[in-house]
Design a protein that fits this description.
UDP-N-acetylmuramoyl-L-alanine:D-glutamate ligase; eight-stranded mixed β-sheet; four-stranded mixed β-sheet; 29% helix
Amino acid sequence: MKILTIGDSCVDIFRYGEVTKLAPEAPIPIIKPEKETSNPGMAGNVVANLKSLGASVDFITNKNEIKKIRYVCSKYNYLLLRIDESDKCEHISYDILKNINWEEYDAVVISDYCKGFLNKDDIKYISLKHPLTFLDSKKTLGDWAYNTSFIKLNSIEFNHNKSIILNDLILNQKIIQTKGKFGCDYQGKNYPTVDVPVKDVSGAGDTFLAGLTYKYILTQSIKTAINFAQECTTIVIQKSGVSTI
């Protein structure tokens, strides 16, 4: 199995520390750093999860480094603050896109966090070039997404696009809406998930997208792929930080 992933990526940094009191200057917690972890984030997390499942992955992403730095109370695993550094990236070169050998890939994953790497025309071009494309995008949907095979949205993204989706039969049939503990909706059917203790939901959507793509390539069944993707997500939300399957 060989998959091409295209999208903007970052470094997810978690700084854990002890919190025992508030600052005297303002009602904010004082954190004493204890440890730090870092790992690939956004599209990079999709790639890490695909590789953990055993897929071979080629990755096209931004060159500049975006950082998402989270400060976490280690005792309660409670997120105190997130700082995003260098939150925009350069646009992908068209020369890169036109030189891709699309036929060597079983699927293309477009992980678009809307940081500037991909525009709507890029996504339309990619979906026209390969017959199996999975899209996860923060953009407002439109006819530029018609040729994608499946579109994964979380509840916030779905509600942002709700009026468009409900009035567009083409997009409506492609949407897979993840709803956390309420499972996942696809073409009018709900796929329930198992209730587990949640430590961290950071990156869970990336894990879902990776599991969905991997299992669909193996089975050609979107129902089987959705159930598998939810199983993968259930694993990572029980871990601290952004984790792989």
